[in-house]
């Protein structure tokens, strides 16, 4: 069971990290908030799995790309809030350019959308 | 997996809270969208998924780099030292094998190692003591043995070179050294005939005496020294390893075989006979010959000896004669310590059983690949032997430490104690023991493991297939372990209780505030009539005047084996039939104040006064209570008469009866061959066992002091020197330490057993703890289900503790039966408590149950805290 979860993380690794870092660019946020933001910003298409989100957050924290601290939310609840670190900002920049390259490459392979349907 | 940073638990808690807050926020948002509270929470939960697994996986993110791995390994290794069964096994084995090695080296040194003399298996000894006359008769007659005599340790004054000193030596037959085959380090041993009168002015020194007293003088041979006022020529020095009859021996002088001194030759100077079987002779022949020589010995006497004289004597190997009573005690110790090893084996076997379960799959795979059962068995046993060899190697360290403690604890008069050492034989024993141990504790688990049902195990994923069989085996091991612990603790309990009774039983006198000192003029000093009496009168007078001294008296020997005159007696009211043994009496020769200083109660009649010591006074004696009851039952002993056998007209009148005193040792008032105890006033009327007219020269002062801490040693020495500067003073010590010394033997035995019992309890507790913990670990799922179904924590606690209690109870029951059978073997070591004392058994049973329950409680608490969710998820 544990194994299955881990595999999924591997699959999403990189992409999810990128999404988290990107989300945190707008300011510090807790895990639930990050999940909500990703979903909202993707137009409800990307549903972030909690089982992947938290391992990713903690992995990024350990890699010092984000920093975490406990805060009290507006609902008077103790929440763990993540913030982008300088190293995280650099990482975000490099990941963005890498993502751009990859999507360009994949786009190149797939060709223009119209050709495929015609073939 | 924990993070290596030492805050794993903290992080887990935070993670838990983080996810809980996530859930709460999600639920609140749903509620805000109009869902009902319960529905919202359930939906949020569903959306989140398995919180436990999320936490675990998240947590794992913290432990993935090599540095972390390394630190983790280190931490794991440290934890292993505490938790790992391998560590426990080696520790348990180390203890078990170490204790056995220590006791075995003791047994080996004392009982097994051959005596360090030529052809030791040919050496023999008689079980009874003989006077000089019978020795001479028998050594002329015997065809099977070369017999020599050797006196008990005697004290000699060495004077003429500095302060007078007391030396310990033995009188021996001239051919004593040649019979043993002992060579001197310097000079010579005694010549034949050197034990005859006028030729016996020789002395041989021990190596230690030569070294310490004579500064290792290389030209010592041929010099003369003064012993007991007589000049003797030093003819030889023995090597350092010659210590016969005891390591205390500092010198040897020849026996003085003078048939003209009838009393000494035929009646008084009893000594041990040892000998060497002549070529071709057997021990049985020697025994038979001793019987046939007895009538010849009795016929040689000038008077009629009791018909059964020397009838109980026999010939045994010299080792047996030397070791005597110590044998039984040592064998009991060896038995006890091997029980300890059994418990250790059971412990390790149990740990292996637990491990075998987890290795079942490995074994099944090997069987499937074609390994034979024998091959598997061999591999598993090799592993356990390796383990126990490791335990044995470490156990040697324990043995070295244990042995030095043992040698310090055992009474110094334990025979051959100085010979005890960790030698090649002991090492061999330890190696053998380790291998044997490995096979024994490895066999049960290995048999279980090798019997694996291949298909079932491989199918089941290797979790719980053969465990029921293993469970039964491990339960039986624990029951056995508890039973053996129970026996050991019962034995220790009985011994400790004996010791307690012994130390709280009055020895018949009060040792507090009494200091004693041995005053030892040469025996010849008293040959001048009245000189000794005057000396002691003056000494007592002056000693009484010392600061802090209340009163002083003298006695020929302290109670508790300090010595007394011994002789056969005729009781006027109770004549002994012709040919039967006359009653043997101990006579304590005392000055009048002795009884009051020692607080020995006067029960009837009167005590002694100074007037009783006058030559013209009527000869009087005092007898002990049990002596009075034995010889004058139902009558008043005061006014009755007794006399020494050889004084037809020397009747003494009994003037008083006093309380019984532990004269022989701490356990008994008198030896089995002594029929009565009497007191006589120091002076001309004291009876001497040797038949001498003079009172004894060597006396012990008993000095009552004003307080417990009065220091009088130097004043006392000065006082004695001022009366006569040639008289040595020695052994100045409180009477209390004399009593403590008498307790040393029972105390050391109890202490050893107490240590064994404590170890047994510890190992037993570890055993129960191990089995119950393991079973809790195995039953986590079951416990989880029970709790999920509503079982309360107390019920879980009871369930687990009950399981342990059942095992312990079975063990205690079997242990009681075993104890009843085995403790009677040690009844000789007990005092005031029966080997089947129900109170001790009950107390020990309760103690053991408490320890067992405490051992169960730790795993039971763990079981109680099982989180049903975690338990179910982890299967």
Structure description:
The complex is a heterodimer of chains A (119) and B (875). Chain A has one domain: Arc Repressor Mutant, subunit A, CATH 1.10.10. Chain A has helices spanning 2-12, 15-24, 31-41, 50-62, 86-110, 113-118; strands at 29-30, 66-72, 78-84. Chain A has 119 residues and is of the alpha+beta class. Chain A is 64% helix and 13% strand. Chain A contains 6 helices and 3 strands; from the N terminus they run ααβααββαα. The longest helix of chain A is centred in the last third of the chain and has 25 residues, at 86-110. By secondary structure, chain B is of the alpha+beta class. Chain B folds into 4 domains: 8-83, no CATH class; 120-323, no CATH class; 326-504 and 742-873, no CATH class; 521-727, no CATH class. In chain B, 51% of the residues lie in helices and 14% in strands. In chain B, β7 and β8 form a beta hairpin. In chain B, α12 packs across α15. The longest helix of chain B is centred in the last third of the chain and has 44 residues, at 735-778. The model of chain B is unreliable at 1-6 and 461-466 (pLDDT under 50). The chains are: A alpha+beta (119), B alpha+beta (875). Chain A binds chain B through residues 1-2, 5-6, 9, 30-33, 36, 49-51, 54-55, 57-59, 62, 70, 73, 75, 77-80, and chain B through 14-15, 17-19, 21-22, 24-26, 28-29, 47-50, 53-62.
The gross shape of chain A turns out to be globular
Number of domains of chain A: 1
How many structural domains does the protein architecture of chain B include? 4
| CATH class bucket of chain A | Mainly Alpha
Number of helices of chain B: 25
Q: Percent of residues of chain A in helical segments?
A: 55-70%
**Rg from alpha-carbon coordinates of chain B:** 37 Å
The chain-level structural class of chain A is alpha+beta
Mean pLDDT of chain B, rounded to whole units?
A: 83
The major pleated sheet of chain A works out as: 3 strands, antiparallel
CATH superfamily of chain A: Winged helix-like DNA-binding domain superfamily/Winged helix DNA-binding domain
Query: Helix- and strand-based class of chain B?
Result: alpha+beta
Largest interface, by Cβ-Cβ below 8 angstroms: which chains and how many residues each? A-B, 26 and 26 residues
Tell me about the largest β-sheet of chain B.
6 strands, mixed, barrel
Poorly predicted sequence stretches spanning 5 or more consecutive residues of chain A:
1-12, 115-119
């Amino acid at each position: 069971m544990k194994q299955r979860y881990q595999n999924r993380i591997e699959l999403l690794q990189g992409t999810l990290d990128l999404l988290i870092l990107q989300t945190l660019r707008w300011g510090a946020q807790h895990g639930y908030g990050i999940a909500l933001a990703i979903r909202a910003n993707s137009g409800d298409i990307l549903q972030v799995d909690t089982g992947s989100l938290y391992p990713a957050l903690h992995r990024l924290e350990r890699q010092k790309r984000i920093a975490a601290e406990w805060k009290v939310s507006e609902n008077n609840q103790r929440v763990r809030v993540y913030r982008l670190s300088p190293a995280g900002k650099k990482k975000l920049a490099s990941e963005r350019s890498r993502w751009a390259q990859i999507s360009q490459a994949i786009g190149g392979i797939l060709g223009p959308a119209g050709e495929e349907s015609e073939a | 997996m924990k993070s290596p940073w030492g805050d794993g638990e903290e992080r887990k808690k935070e993670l838990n809270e983080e996810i809980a807050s996530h859930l709460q926020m999600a639920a609140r948002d749903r509620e805000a969208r109009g869902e009902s509270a319960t529905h919202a929470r359930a939906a949020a939960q569903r959306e989140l998924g398995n919180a436990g697994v999320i936490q675990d996986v998240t947590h794992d993110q913290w432990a993935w780099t090599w540095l972390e791995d390394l630190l983790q390994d280190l931490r794991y290794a440290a934890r292993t030292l505490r938790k790992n069964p391998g560590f426990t096994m080696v520790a348990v084995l180390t203890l078990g094998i170490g204790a056995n090695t220590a006791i075995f080296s003791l047994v080996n040194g004392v009982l097994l190692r051959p005596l360090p003399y030529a052809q030791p298996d040919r050496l023999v000894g008689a079980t009874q003591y003989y006077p000089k006359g019978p020795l001479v008769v028998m050594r002329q007659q015997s065809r099977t043995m070369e017999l020599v005599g050797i006196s008990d340790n005697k004290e000699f004054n060495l004077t003429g070179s500095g302060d007078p000193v007391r030396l310990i030596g033995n009188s021996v037959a001239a051919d004593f050294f040649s019979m043993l085959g002992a060579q001197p380090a310097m000079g010579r041993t005694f010549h034949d005939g050197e034990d005859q009168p006028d030729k016996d002015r020789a002395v041989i020194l021990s190596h230690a005496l030569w070294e310490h007293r004579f500064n290792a003088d290389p030209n010592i041979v041929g010099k003369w020294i003064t012993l007991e006022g007589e000049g003797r020529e030093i003819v030889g020095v023995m090597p350092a390893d010659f210590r016969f009859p005891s390591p205390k021996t500092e010198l040897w002088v020849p026996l003085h075989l003078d048939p003209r001194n009838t009393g000494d030759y035929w009646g008084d100077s009893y000594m041990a006979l040892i000998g060497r079987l002549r070529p071709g002779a057997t021990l049985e022949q020697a025994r038979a010959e001793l019987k046939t020589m007895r009538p010849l010995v009795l016929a040689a006497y000038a008077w009629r000896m009791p018909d059964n004289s020397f009838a109980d004597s026999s010939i045994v190997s010299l080792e047996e004669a030397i070791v005597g009573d110590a044998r039984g005690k040592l064998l009991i110790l060896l038995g006890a310590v091997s029980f300890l090893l059994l418990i250790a084996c059971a412990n390790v076997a149990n740990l292996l059983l637990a491990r075998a379960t987890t290795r079942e799959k490995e074994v099944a795979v090997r069987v499937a690949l074609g390994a034979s059962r024998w091959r598997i068995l061999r591999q598993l046993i090799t592993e356990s032997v390796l383990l126990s060899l490791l335990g044995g190697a470490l156990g040697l360290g324990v043995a070295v430490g244990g042995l030095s403690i043992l040698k310090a604890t055992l009474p110094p008069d334990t025979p051959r104690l100085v010979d005890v050492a960790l030698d090649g034989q002991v090492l061999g024993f330890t190696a053998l023991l380790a291998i044997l141990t490995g096979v024994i504790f490895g066999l049960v688990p290995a048999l279980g493991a090798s019997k694996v049902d291949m298909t079932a195990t491989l199918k089941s994923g290797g979790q719980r297939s053969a465990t029921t069989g293993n469970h039964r085996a491990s339960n039986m091991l624990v029951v056995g372990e508890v039973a053996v612990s129970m026996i050991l603790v019962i034995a220790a309990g009985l011994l400790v209780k004996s010791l307690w009774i012994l130390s709280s039983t009055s020895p018949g006198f009060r040792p507090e505030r009494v200091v004693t000192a041995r005053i030892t003029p040469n025996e010849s000093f008293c040959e001048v009539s009245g000189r000794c009496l005057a000396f002691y009168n003056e000494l007592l007078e002056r000693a009484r005047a010392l600061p802090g001294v209340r009163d002083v008296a003298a006695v020929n020997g302290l109670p508790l084996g300090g010595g007394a005159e011994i002789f056969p007696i005729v009781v006027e009211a109770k004549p002994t039939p012709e040919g039967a043994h006359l009653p043997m009496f101990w006579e304590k020769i005392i000055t009048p104040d002795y009884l009051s200083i020692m607080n020995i109660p006067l029960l009837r009649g009167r005590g002694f006064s100074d007037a009783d010591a006058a030559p013209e006074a009527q000869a009087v004696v005092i007898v002990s209570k049990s002596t009075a009851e034995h010889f004058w039952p139902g009558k008043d002993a005061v006014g009755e008469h007794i006399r020494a056998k050889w004084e037809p007209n020397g009747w003494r009148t009994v003037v008083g009866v006093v309380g019984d005193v532990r004269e022989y040792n701490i356990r008994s008032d008198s030896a089995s061959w002594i029929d009565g105890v009497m007191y006589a006033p120091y002076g001309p009327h004291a009876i001497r066992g040797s038949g001498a007219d003079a009172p004894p020269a060597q006396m012990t002062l008993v000095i009552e002091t004003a307080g417990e801490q009065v220091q009088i040693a130097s004043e006392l020495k000065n006082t004695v020197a001022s009366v006569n500067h040639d008289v040595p003073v020695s052994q100045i010590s409180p009477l209390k330490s004399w009593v403590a010394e008498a307790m040393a033997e029972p105390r050391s035995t109890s202490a050893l057993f107490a240590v064994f019992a404590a170890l047994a309890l510890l190992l037993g507790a570890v055993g129960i703890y191990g089995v119950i913990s393991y079973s809790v670990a195995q039953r986590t799922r079951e416990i989880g289900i029970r709790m999920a179904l509503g079982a309360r924590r107390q019920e879980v606690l009871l369930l687990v503790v009950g399981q342990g209690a059942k095992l312990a109870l079975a063990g205690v029951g079997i242990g009681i039966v075993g104890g009843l059978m085995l403790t009677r073997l040690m009844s000789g070591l007990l005092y005031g408590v029966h080997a089947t004392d129900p109170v001790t058994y009950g107390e020990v049973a309760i103690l053991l149950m408490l320890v067992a329950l405490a051992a169960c409680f730790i795993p039971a608490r763990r079981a109680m805290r099982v989180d049903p969710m975690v338990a179910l998820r982890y299967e």
